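Example S7 (structure tokens).
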């Protein structure tokens, strides 16, 4: 196993530096920071008995801010993206909790979860925290891309009206949204592939599937993430356009 991991890591590094150039260092620093935060901060706090939802919100969000600034530098892009992500994350966090509670999900989706429950971890809160954490990453990707798109449009035509900039960036956002939503569904389908095969092979009805907690948990995770993307695209496009045009922004200084 180790040689495969090593070779894939080398290929990853080569491709990142080939495609991203000098910015690859920023991206790798952000990635290492993310891994370190998950392994040495977020996970130990949850194991120690802290509420997973609060850990993700109070620790995950500041970590995200650091990641954005590591990746993009101390720039206007980072400032606007951070604000927009936080606004959308508040909405998605509330939606996640309401959805999980309304569906009466316990958080028990595997044998491993049962062991965590015996260790004193609230599995329902862990499920909510996990969905929040995954959604936070998805939101960041969409928001940073949309804000950067708005900035590039303004930089290429600073005389364009606010309405025209918004329209152009929104068009790009819709195309991006279509591809990333499909990607998101396929990613979660891949994670839940064994569940899908079991249900397809057993000839279970749709009603049975929608009452099977492991499958319903993944469906809610996917839908919440998708809703987050859909709301983040127009809000990030509007707020970036509104703010930058009022600040007489005329060029994007790439870090």
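Recovered sequence:
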């Amino acid at each position: 196993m180790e040689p495969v991991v090593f070779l894939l890591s080398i290929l990853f590094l080569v491709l990142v530096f080939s495609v991203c150039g000098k910015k690859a260092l920023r991206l790798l620093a952000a990635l290492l920071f993310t891994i370190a935060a998950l392994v040495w901060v977020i996970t130990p706090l949850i194991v120690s008995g802290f509420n997973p939802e609060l850990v993700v919100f109070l620790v995950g969000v500041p970590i995200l801010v650091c990641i954005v600034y590591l990746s993009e530098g101390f720039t206007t892009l980072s400032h606007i993206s951070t604000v927009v992500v936080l606004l959308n994350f508040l909405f998605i966090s509330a939606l996640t909790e309401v959805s999980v509670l309304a569906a009466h999900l316990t958080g028990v989706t595997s044998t491993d979860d049962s062991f965590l429950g015996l260790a004193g971890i609230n599995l329902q809160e862990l499920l909510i925290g996990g969905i929040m954490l995954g959604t936070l990453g998805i939101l960041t990707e969409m928001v940073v891309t949309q804000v950067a798109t708005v900035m590039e449009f303004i930089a290429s035509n600073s005389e364009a009206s606010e309405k025209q900039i918004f329209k152009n960036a929104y068009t790009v956002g819709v195309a991006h949204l279509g591809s990333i939503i499909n990607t998101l569904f396929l990613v979660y389908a891949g994670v839940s592939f064994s569940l899908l095969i079991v249900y397809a092979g057993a000839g279970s009805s749709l009603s049975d599937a929608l009452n099977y907690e492991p499958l319903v948990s993944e469906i809610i995770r996917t839908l919440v993430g998708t809703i987050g993307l859909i709301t983040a695209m127009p809000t990030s496009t509007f707020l970036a356009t509104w703010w930058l045009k009022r600040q007489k922004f005329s060029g994007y200084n790439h870090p």
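Notes on this example. The chain is about 85% helix and 0% strand.
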